[in-house]
Amino acid sequence: MSSLIAIARNLNDSLTDYTNIHDEIFKKSIRNSIPIPFLFKAINFQELEQRLQSIHNDLSRYKTQVNDIRQSGSEAAAKCNIFIEYVDKLMYAVQLLHGITHNLLLKSEVDSSYKLNEHTELVKRYEKAVDEYYSLGEKMNSVFS
């Protein structure tokens, strides 16, 4: 098995973790409709922030590994280039989600400086970043299949 494929499998694991965090923050739930605090578990933003940092570190490591593979010439440069570009886009989305999570953590600790309009703008930037890595992921899948 190619080492690039092994790294891609690790990337998929990180992507799954990241997607789970995204869903935990943004998923629609009955809690939004019926706010009964004692029936629902609060979101642990500090834990999510730490998990996002770990994912970001993993992505950075994958990028370095693929860059090393590209420089060694053991894999097609086109595959390595699309992989690195995808990881860059995903890392940006992870950074934005980390920022959102950090701000929500501060807000949950009664820091009222994070305003709704700031949150809305950051979420728009995040959604654009998600669209960018997602469309590049489709291209990457076609290159790797």
Describe the protein.
By secondary structure, the chain is mainly α. It has five helices and no strands.
Top keywords for this entry?
single chain, elongated, mainly alpha, 81% helix, 145 residues, 0% strand
The SS-based structural class is mainly alpha
Number of beta strands: 0
Please tell me the overall pLDDT: 88
Anisotropy-based shape:
elongated
Compact description:
The protein has 145 residues and is mainly alpha-helical. It has helices at residues 3-26, 30-33, 45-72, 77-108, 116-144.
Topology:
Elements: H1 3-26, H2 30-33, H3 45-72, H4 77-108, H5 116-144
